[in-house]
Design a protein that fits this description.
With about 550 residues, the chain is α+β, with helices and mostly antiparallel strands. It folds into four domains: about 1-125, no CATH class; about 130-215, Roll (Pdz3 Domain); about 220-355 and about 380-425, Alpha-Beta Complex (2-enoyl-CoA Hydratase, Chain A, domain 1), CATH 3.90.226.10; about 435-530, no CATH class. The chain is built from 19 helices and 23 strands. The strands form six sheets. Strands 1, 2, 3, 15, 16, 19 and 20 form a seven-stranded mixed sheet that branches. α13 (about 450-465) packs across α16 (about 500-515) and α16 (about 500-515) packs antiparallel against α17 (about 520-525). It is globular, with a radius of gyration of 26 Å. The two termini are about 45 Å apart.
Length: about 550
């Protein structure tokens, strides 16, 4: 049977510009996102091209005829409930209940049964591809507003612009609709059309465009030059095509003095893409990763696989720093672990999530699929990436004294206790007590604070463009008006008039203005004030001539904690 390997997923790609909020204010939602998004290596099992549907069904029937006595009891129980249970249920309903109940008892936090809709969403989230027109929409100022138009998409070819307000889809008003309602209506099968009606500033009448849907890919990489000629690459997921995007970013930044690869908040993605990304940084023949699993029906782990780099390094000798945190997981850990084992990158930040097992997705029927943990990943030096968890996803007790230690070719000692331990531990910045209190008060008053930030940043970016300014700026009068509007809405004059809260507001707003103006490097520079991990990375790179300089300058060694 054909097998398609994946490694992780992310249902709703988080734009680069939201990294700030993720790190400081959405710890709980990020934890939830880890469990929604982490899938690991997936092998989708299905009939080979030459096998007909009838042959497939016959093969499945033959398998069911060969079940063990224990499995036959399960089937007999199903038939008994179906035939004699007081409440009659369709076979599909009973099977779904049975499978979900069975998975619940496996103590496998990553196992899942997919119905047709769930599987379609899973495939979309893994690839970053969907069939639509290629716009990003946000609910701003009581209207569904286009906040990004992706390159080489139907939306760009149709002339849609950032700032256009979508007021109708297929001759139906979008008044009262959510962004989800609009998104669902715009998306559809490739080749079909959708009528999108927009209102645009400066136009007296609405404009309707008939747009042909096509496959759309959302980039996972943001790259730019920051500081004193230093390269910065943010990879928010390991999606299909990410390796090419990272390679293009490395080529763009080849003239910089050093490069930061930011994997913070990256929940994973495709296995083959993660291996290709690691390949970009390592010499041909270098081990990238290995895996252990068991053959179908076997009792022991008796399948060993390994992958080695095939191509030349893109930026040989250039100092590299990788940033990770507790939400870096799965495929992103494979990248970080490989470069750390080969002394090719200095790792800064927090111990990573520890998602070192992989799953297969098997076809159960024509429209039902099952995801199941089937193997474990290891770094080039044999360190397990997996941290043991219970079915709720909580880590189990650990004894750091039992963690195995491996030594790199350069003599550095690395811990193998699960996940990737940073070479230098630095925690992400946290909110002050007054900032926490302010945000809590805003939430209690049910004021959408993040939305207000987005609305204002969008308005400022558009004003800067109209004024002919290419520099992300925040006018003092405009900022004062924004604060006044928040005061009127929240009645929190005392908090909003303190320097501490106003500085926090500016820090939240300026990176978003820069991102809206497609100035990712400036956005990064605005964030530095409260990003100690990135600040330290840029400090180290500013004086490093080669990779060993980074190791010598780093003040810590990777000790378990």
């Amino acid at each position: 049977m054909d097998r398609i390997k994946l490694h992780g997923s992310c249902k709703n790609p988080i734009p680069f510009s939201s990294i700030t909020t993720k790190l400081l204010t959405n710890i709980a939602s990020m934890t939830s996102r880890i469990w929604l998004c982490l899938i690991t290596t997936v092998i989708i099992a299905h009939p080979v091209a030459s096998q007909s549907s009838s042959e497939y069904r016959r093969s499945q029937q033959n398998l069911s005829n060969a079940v063990s006595p224990g499995a036959q009891i399960f089937l007999n129980a199903f038939e008994t409930i179906r035939n004699y249970g007081l409440e009659q249920m369709a076979d599909s309903v009973l099977w779904e209940k049975a499978v979900r109940g069975l998975l619940k008892e496996l103590n496998d936090p990553y196992a899942q049964a997919y119905n047709p809709l769930e599987f379609d969403q899973f495939r979309e989230s893994n690839t970053g591809n969907y069939a639509g027109i290629g716009v990003q929409i946000t609910h701003l100022n009581e209207a569904i507003t286009i906040t990004a138009v992706f390159n080489s998409t139907p939306a760009e070819r149709s002339g849609l612009q950032v700032g256009d307000r979508i007021i109708g889809v297929n001759e139906i008003s979008t008044e009262g609709w959510t962004t989800g309602n609009v998104s669902d209506s715009i998306r559809g099968k490739i080749g079909t059309t959708v009528d999108v009606t927009i209102a645009r500033q400066g136009l007296g009448t609405a404009v309707t465009s008939t747009i042909t849907r096509d496959s759309v890919h959302v980039t996972a990489v943001i790259a730019d030059v920051v500081g004193d000629n230093l390269g910065y690459i943010a990879l928010d997921r390991v999606a299909r095509g990410s390796a090419v995007e990272v390679q293009q970013a490395l080529e763009k930044l080849a003239g910089t003095r050093g490069i930061v690869l930011d994997l913070r908040g990256n929940p994973g993605g495709y296995l083959d893409e993660s291996l290709k990304i690691g390949d970009l940084f390592l010499e041909r023949g270098s081990r990238l990763a290995s895996a252990e699993s068991r053959s179908p029906g076997g009792t022991d782990r008796n399948i060993d696989e390994s992958w080695n780099a095939r191509g030349p390094e893109i930026v040989p000798g250039k100092p590299i720093i990788i940033l990770v945190d507790r939400f870096s997981a799965s495929a992103s850990e494979i990248i970080a672990g490989a470069l750390q084992d080969h002394d090719r990158a200095l790792i800064l930040g927090e111990r990573t999530f520890g998602k070192g097992v992989f799953q297969n997705v098997f076809r159960l029927s024509d429209d039902r699929h099952l995801r199941l943990t089937t193997g474990e990943w290891f770094t080039p030096l044999g360190r397990s990436l997996h941290r043991r968890r219970n079915v709720q996803g909580r880590t189990l007790p650990e004894d750091p004294d039992t963690f195995p230690i491996v030594t790199t070719a350069g003599g550095r000692e690395l811990s193998g206790g699960g996940g990737v331990f940073p070479d230098q531990r630095i925690s992400n910045d946290t909110l002050t007590l007054n900032e926490r209190a302010f945000l809590s008060q805003m939430a209690q008053k049910q004021i959408p604070f993040d939305l207000r930030i987005e609305e204002f940043a969008f308005e400022q970016s558009e004003r800067n463009r109209r004024d002919g300014s290419s520099e992300p700026t925040l006018g003092s009068a405009d900022f004062k008006a924004f604060v006044s509007a928040l005061e009127e809405e929240s009645q929190l004059e005392e908090s909003l008039n303190t320097n501490e809260i106003q500085n926090y507001l500016r820090w939240r707003i300026l990176p978003r203005i820069a991102q809206r103006m497609e100035k990712p490097g400036r956005s990064v520079e605005f964030r530095l004030e409260r990003d100690p991990v990135l600040s330290e990375a840029l400090r180290l790179l500013s004086t490093a001539q080669k990779q060993s300089d980074l190791f010598n300058e780093s003040e810590e060694f990777p000790l378990p904690h």
